[in-house]
Amino acid sequence: MAKTKNHTVFFCKECGYESAKWMGQCPSCRQWNTFVEEPAAEAARPGMIKRNAGKAAVPVSISDISLEEQDRTPTGFGELDRVLGDGIVKGSLVLVGGDPGIGKSTLLLQVCRNLAASGKRLLYISGEESLKQIKMRANRIGAVSGELFFLCETNLDAVSGAIENTKPEIVVIDSIQTMYREDLSSAPGSVSQVRESTNLLMQIAKGYGITIFIVGHVTKEGVVAGPRVLEHMVDTVLYFEGDRNDSYRILRAVKNRFGSTNEIGVFEMAENGLAEVKNPSEMLLSGRPEGTSGSVVACSMEGTRPILLEVQALVTESGFGMARRTANGADYNRVNLLLAILEKRCGYAMGRYDAYVNIAGGLKMNEPALDLALIMALTSSFKNRAADPGMMIFGEVGLAGEVRAVSQAAQRVAEAVKMGFSSCMLPKANLEKLKEEKRIRLIGVSNVREAIGYLNT
Ligand code: TYD
Ligand code: MG
Asked: Rounded to two decimals, what is the model's pTM?
């Protein structure tokens, strides 16, 4: 990189793209109006080659790298352990993102409480709340005992000193956006501050073998404020999502160097903190209107776990020239595509109808296995014919209206059996590979029209 005379650079607030001049649209993430001007950090500029006088790095042969058992610590929350990939890994850096007020601080305080009770030494650093506020929250979640220390501080150099003195095994940084480093002139929460702060925390985590949880606030949907820069620096990225008006919260891994992603953990916010929801299917299906048109039960795989959920559709004659479509929790484009399939393959004049789709419980699902359930819900509402309330439905739908096989069919059927369903509609191709099942009636279908024939008359 050529050395510039500029003393400021421009960063994209969304993805951290760096540019010497201001631009309307970010060439990296294609967002508009996201560039902010910040002082250039000379020392941190990548691409500068420094001569490391006399010291050459020594590469290691792959056969000499020892693979000790990864040191995993259970958090006391089975739901969180699964999302992390079987507990906390020593020396890892975990980002917990989510909307303000969703329960990030509560979750981490409860994790600290569980770990302190099992004899760990912990340090909770808050840049947002006073010690009194933390104490008040701690009182809500129940008695805390053991070696759990608190610190209210936003200066990261002071924080790093405190970590060295306290020597904890696990550290929580409550909100990376409040932390700052003295040697940078930009404001806390700015892209360069967040990036440099995370850098320092990573050095601490790897250097001392301390696990660090970093809280990051999300400003816009799915984006931790400022930096997606953060996401590729840390080992694990967890998002805490859910409707603020609803008490259910979903913890989702979007990146994990020590386990699989796609795993979710389900929690419920109660009066005394977060409680685990061990059987999410039961919670998502409670209060379902049985025998009403437009409501069917689908199955989505979340990592290794099948989850049953209710898919609702409402199809009504359109009052205006343009049909209105909304998709809540499902993929909007996918819903439009399925409506087009119904129009072309079944001859329904969907263009003259408004269609509203909703996944009950505030979950977001975009697995193709949801297609058949969406088709059934839409048709059920369109024809005003209810589906069998004891039937669970899964399958992918292709453009020709064919029903295609999906993965992990056996697990999905097993979940339907567990939840007491009497029948299951699935792709014929999946049925042929399944073992005979006596506890549930399996209905194999090969195209959309065949599936629709199973709606009640
Ligand atoms: P908090 O953990 O402060 O959110 P974040 O750190 O993500 O900003 O959660 C705050 C919300 O949780 C607040 O609206 C109150 C609610 N809450 C409960 O309902 N029960 C509880 O026991 C606690 C501690 C919080
Ligand atoms: Mg908080």
From this structure: 0.77
